[in-house]
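Hello, quick one for you while I still have it in my head. A protein chain has come my way and I'm curious about its shape. I'm sending you its amino acid sequence along with the backbone structure tokens. I'd be grateful if you could look everything over and explain what you see. Here's the protein in full, and shout if anything looks odd to you:
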Amino acid sequence: GGMSSPPLEDGGTSARSSSAEDIGGSTHSLDDDVVMDSAPTTPPFSATNANDATANNNEGFSCEAVFLSGHSGSGKSSITKHIISHCNANHWFVLTCKFDRQVAPLSALLQSFDAFFGRLVVPTATQQQQQRQPGIIQREPWVQEAFERISSTIVSLIDGESYCQLCELLPNLGEFFPLPFAGAVGANNKRRSSFTTNITNFTEQTTTTNTATAGEAVEGPEGGSNDPLSSFLQRSSSPGGVGSGNNRLLYLFHVIFKLVRSGGRPVIIVVDDLQWSDAFTMDILGDFAQTDGSSSTATASHTASSSSSSGAQESLHNGGLLLVGTFRDNEVDADGFVMNQITCMDLSSTYNQSITVKRLFVGELPEFEINKMLSFKFCLPMRHTAGLARLVFHKTRGNPMYIVEFLRSIIKRNMMTFSVKSRRWTWDDDSIDFHMISEGVVELLTRKLQQLPPDVIQALKVISCFGQINVSMIRLLDLGQFVPDMSESLELALKEGILEKAGPLYAFSHDMLQESTYALIPTEERGLLHKQIGKSLVQDPDILNNNELCTLAADQINICKDTDGILDPSEKALFVRVNLRAGKNSIAASSYEQARGYFEAGISLLATNPWDKQYSLCLELYEMSVIVSFIGGNVETVSSRLSDILSHARSFDDALNSRSLRAKFLASQAQYAEAASELLDVLSNLGEEFPKDVGLSHVRSEVKATQLMLKDITKEQILNLPTIQDAKELKKMKSMGILIALANFSSPMLVPLLCCRMMKMTFKFGSCEDTISGLAFMSHALLHYSDDVMLASRVGRIAEQLIVGNIHEHSLRARLTQMTGSVKVMVEPFQAAVEHCRKGYNSAKIVGDVDNAVLCGMIYCMAHFFIIPDLIGLQKYMVNFFQQMAKHKRIGVLRSAMSYFCAVTSLIGNKKSCKIDSRIKMKTNEELYHIAEQTQSAYLKHHVLTNQMYIHCFFREYLIVANLGEDYRKMHTGTNVGTKRTLDFIKVFVEGISALCLARDTKQEKWRKIGEDAVRTMKQLVENSAWNFENKLCLLQAELYYLNHRHSMAELSYQASIVSAHEHKFFHEEALACELYGIYLIENKKLSKGMKQLKQALNKYKAWGATKKADSVKDFVYVVKKPAKLWNK
């Protein structure tokens, strides 16, 4: 208990390198970023009560971001060191990251987090020597508490698959629950099982002691494919969209940051030299700063039965985040990514009180401060040091680093000495002024370097080409014969203070020393030195399997590759493959932009006419460039490289991958018809033909045949099917798996034909991953084109069960949530759709699938509007939702969401007071309908008409509803005949109410027929889900009884509708039933009873948030009361 623990801070340069794998996340919590920003009143997808309670304990979380700017050597790093020292003394969580030119910023940031988790789980060598019991890790109490909190967070926040993927990216995280199989790509089931076992052990034990058994280290990758192309194409049916990789990483870092925050300590993140970061890394830091406490799902209640874990269940103390960033202001553009992100954080602080942003300029020291410093250091009165201070200021211009070097220089030249006789420092101002000419700090450092032995200077020149070097590479550099003994030269530089050593890494003690050393290399010789270094590194026979060496060699060659004549053809051919491997390594580390750089460098090193001379290598490089450009968001590269591939491909098979990629690319740009056409052509070449114009009778015939095939289907039957072996049939299935998702937007009648074909192929040739997609879409087809809703529900549940545990679980869930959810709302309580949507949203965030995350957000809008009685909360959520959709340029879904916003504001009546970004051009329903007509978007038109009918029905504008119903029917003509949508029941309900009221007022038979049809349709829906549709049926029946003058039955039906709506929590429809019942009573001379119902309706509309609608009821009540009073008089 009395043993000391090292400060939880990074070791400076140790944060500069990283080796990482792709990662995932959790299905158990929802973030507040990207798309689903929490609504203040009712947060979307709120967690369980236990998690909500814990989140409330973090309400005090705040962030302060401080950015220090100044010239190199101005003392920014010294300031941060003092801050770190203070935070360590007070047991803060300290993470430091230093960016440089040689190492990818993302890798540096990941390494800093990995080092942090490593210090939590593994004590230092000194502590290990002091351990009294071998195999037992003893930590300080506060460190042990943090360890337990983070462990608890892992249990409730992250699922098994995601934890294993996180461990591949952050190896030290695996020490929390050591997994023997964490690195094996092909051992997902074993990893998940191992995780479950460790979690079970954790939740069963009492975590009140300060010791923990040391676990095994996470093993490195073993087995499995390291080919990102095959991995990507295995997931090719996922319409992740351009930039999905970066979106997934943003989500992942959000999860990682949650783990750090859950430790219950204040957090400081120090990032040095931001001028060498990149836009994506700055986005990550901005995400940290703008994450408020409400999103933190601390995980005290990881299991209801673990009453012994009381320490983990107590409320968390969270002191917030201090983000400290430094940058050279003369190397940062005013409109560059660094200043843009700082400005964004600053703007967010205006509406988020938990964020504070400060900018501090670290300038030159004034002469007065220099005099104070000299007086203090030399123990002399300031009047004695004033002359020297004036001279120092004149020579150094107040630059702190220059001041230090200047003083060292004059002491070394004996221009300043300590007088034993006088017992003080003495100097001659005139001598210093005469002998020392004014020179910049770089020149001063250069002079200092030139005084070193030649071998040391040459060794430093080599190191300056890296920035830092691992001791393991010294052997290879010795092969280059740069100096007789590289190790000896580096040790001498270490003694001189030019270098510093952190673990196995040598690095310059200051960036300016590295820059000054590199400047010593003549410009014309730099390319040759980089080439010599690169060739030394590739002499390792295992270079292509050594990620670090391969990347470093590629970096060195890419610096000089454009110099004319520096590489011969054989050297170029070698470094093409080195760049290809380095790019694949970067994909594994999730550095997509860096990977793109390597692939493009490899392409530039290809021979003249590479498609003729190096076809296979050229094809692979171009395909890899397309992939990383796609998931990294580089649209221009995707388009140009795909064109190159498709114009040079020698066969259909060679072009197949690229054609699939092009379809995904077109879909991500909302060109669904073009994407579908591309894939239909691919399928035609594979022998699968589909009609251009799909008729309703054809669809029903195909669905009926498949319905018989699936009549008794079970999950076990699907699992027992053999895996599809025929390569051609597998290509067909994959192509249809991509097409089926796109056709839902462009040709919805094609969807049931595709899923029927996929089911037939599955039972004929075997199953594959796309079988799950086929089942999910088949459930949707059965729902709309057969009379067997329960079979549709069973097929949908089988698809959901098969998703769980699949190697691409999150990707599948993200894109199939809409299909399986549409079936759920017909057989399960509507409220369950919210939970289903939450899971789909989380999975979409994990895989970076913004398109499907936005679609899940759209489903939430629909569910919230038609199910949850909270219009104010929905409106606030939608304002944030618009912001995120505009940010990600998802204009199609944004327009559909606008129709719901128009409906909400029509009920609330506060459109002008909504704080919507002025850059988002809001549209009225009329404008949206016009856009839908112009773009031929049946999807948008469907939502616009549904919302308009719904609102006009609530305001009792029944003739408008009837006319809109006619427009709705016209929309389903021609090629859209028979097309059905999940929300059709809304149209049936409101049109039925309106038609029956019109029939009563106009006595026209056509309205009666529409009303009676609505009653029959609703009866069919009630057979599958009384919970969802009973109150609606009762209200329709009440209006029909009223029309038929069956007053006793009408009253009973009105009352039944009110009771059913209340019991099933459709409070807004309870208000509608009360209003219509009140009107019925008043029209039938039961004034007092009717007024009571209207007042109940008024109160319920207010509770819903429908202020404008409540006012209309209030006005109606006033109109009814006034003649009654006159009659009484």
In short: Confidence is low (pLDDT under 50) at residues 1-59, 124-132, 179-240, 293-317. The longest helix spans residues 1107-1128. The chain is about 65% helix and 5% strand.
